[in-house]
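Lecture notes, unit on binding sites. The following record was shown on slide 14. It pairs a sequence with 3,4-dihydroxybenzoic acid.
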Amino acid sequence: MAKMIGMIGTSHIPAIGRAVDQGLEETPYWVDFFEGYKPMRKFLQEEQPDIAVLFYNDHGLSMFLDKKPTYAIGCAPQYDNADEGWGVKVIPPLTGETELSWHIVNHLIENDFDPTVCQDIKVDHGATVPMSVLYPNHSYQGVKVIPIAINCERHPMPKPSRSYAFGKAIGDAIRSWDSDQKVVVLGTGGLSHQLDGERAGFLNTDFDQMCMDKLVTDPEFICQYSNDDLTRIAGAQGVEWAMWLAARGCFSGPVKEIERRLVAPISNTASGLQLLLPA
Ligand code: DHB
Ligand code: FE
């Protein structure tokens, strides 16, 4: 049985990737933000997970509005970086884990979830930024990654409660995989933010803190919100809470909070960071 060692929730703001690449971690704007990643990096360094199951959203790079899976799972041996408009980033690709990917797909379809299977996708900042900030100097090539995309761009989007249930089914799949490998679960995106329109720059850190509390003690509480609620309360891109909910859903029993950080704003976003371990 594969062992699930914990969950890290983290924002995936593109500017973080740029700060990493340009060595800006100790500069005044970034120092407080990056301080929060030290315990996360230490945890990963000490625990050495073999696999990262990474929930992200594709912001229109591989999955544009014309073809938008509600849920999609990478089943590829490697994931190259998408071109986000400034040329392809020269950072290492992510290494895949096809056996567990297919195990999850089979389990999901047997349990009434029907994800899109992706054997050839490029990943955007939703996946590359968390890996780059969690593994210094892009040292993530020793960990295999399963990118799982949740539609957060095109209406209709899956309900938050559905993404939590999706995560539950994935947790069951991982636990039923006959392997002694160690799995860390990453929920990326959020927290409150709105990138465009009249409310561009809108944040709601009280709501973010409350949801991080509930993620520990009562994740189903967050499932009461619709995507319209999240848009209103946490900004249009507040719907990226879906990935944190899916990641939390992977853990069936109680969890304990080891670290939490909320730095706002970073770029246009309330940047959240949380490490939860099975209790
Ligand atoms: C920003 C945040 C995001 O989640 C994203 O996908 C793109 C940009 C930002 O705050 O700049
Ligand atoms: Fe985003």
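Take-home: The CA atoms of residues 81 and 128 lie 7 Å apart.
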